[in-house]
Write a sequence for this structure.
């Protein structure tokens, strides 16, 4: 049996499936697990003795922290993770890696620089460039995505160039940044979620959009089933997580005529869909990684970046 570790899960809701499973899996392996709301953490930022306080108490040092930071609290949540790093606590995902993956544009640019397969993507500012932005990704049908969207929200399929111009004008009217992206017709409304832990794909499922929908998110009525991925898909997922600097990641891939294309890299992937589809103990795999690497002072960046 591995030694008992003191582990903190940063989560706003301990009743969520992913949080419950992480508590159950950790306790089943003999660890001391505590769930803490990151928004109730506050920090003493000092040079010699950085501290985190929670609901009036100073948190004692722990061996590892598992961040389950929602997109809406990325800024504050990563500040809390960074403070743990400065205290020498091992984070399953480091603050800089979470921030990097949450910035859709930045993450695509980093993946592109390392020659990871991606859908052709456009990004611009001036309304004078609308037509060229649409042409850049192959014209209609095309996908238009808000940079701040999550779980399929803020993602629109424009069937015609005129419809695309209207959506772009609407997003610009809201002062919102967006991406244009080619529509991968041969994917047939499906994508593959690869769950990566410690540079291994520990589970994979195919998510299929419901009839009349192109977004495959299970939250939007999509279905999920286990799938055997190819060696190229496996290496693509692992490489994408490594480029982001994530030890635990959900890498979403589409199958295309030119090979696997990474659509998104998620730093807080849900456990319910992948465990339900595959029947695998994904939470246990996360703890196996912590047991091997989760020691004080093992943070690579030590709060930098």
């Amino acid at each position: 049996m591995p030694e008992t570790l003191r582990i903190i899960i940063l989560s706003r809701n301990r009743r969520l499936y992913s949080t419950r499973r992480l508590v159950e899996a950790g306790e089943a392996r003999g660890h001391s697990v505590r769930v803490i709301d990151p928004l109730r953490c506050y920090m003493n930022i000092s040079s010699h003795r950085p501290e985190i306080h929670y609901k009036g108490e100073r948190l004692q040092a722990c061996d590892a922290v598992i961040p389950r930071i929602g997109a809406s609290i990325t800024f504050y949540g990563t500040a809390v993770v960074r403070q743990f790093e400065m205290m020498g606590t091992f984070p399953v995902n480091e603050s800089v890696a979470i921030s990097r993956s949450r910035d859709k544009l930045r993450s695509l640019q980093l993946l592109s620089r390392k020659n990871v397969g991606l859908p052709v993507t456009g990004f611009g500012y001036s309304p004078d460039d609308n037509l060229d932005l649409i042409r850049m990704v192959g014209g209609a049908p095309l996908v238009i995505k808000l940079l701040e969207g999550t779980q399929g929200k803020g993602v629109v399929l424009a069937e015609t160039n005129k419809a695309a111009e209207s959506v772009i004008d609407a997003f610009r009217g809201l002062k919102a940044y967006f991406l244009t992206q080619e529509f991968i017709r041969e994917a047939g409304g499906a994508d593959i979620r690869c769950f990566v832990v410690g540079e291994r794909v520990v589970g994979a499922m195919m998510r299929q959009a419901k009839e009349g929908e192109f977004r495959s998110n299970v939250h939007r009525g999509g279905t999920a089933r286990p799938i055997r991925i190819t060696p190229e898909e496996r290496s693509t997922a692992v490489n994408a997580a490594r480029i982001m600097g994530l030890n635990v990641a959900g890498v979403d891939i589409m199958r295309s005529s030119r090979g696997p294309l990474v659509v998104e890299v998620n730093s807080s992937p849900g456990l319910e869909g992948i465990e339900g589809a595959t029947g695998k103990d994904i939470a246990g795999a996360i703890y196996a990684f912590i047991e091997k690497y989760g020691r004080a002072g093992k943070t690579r960046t030590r709060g930098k970046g």
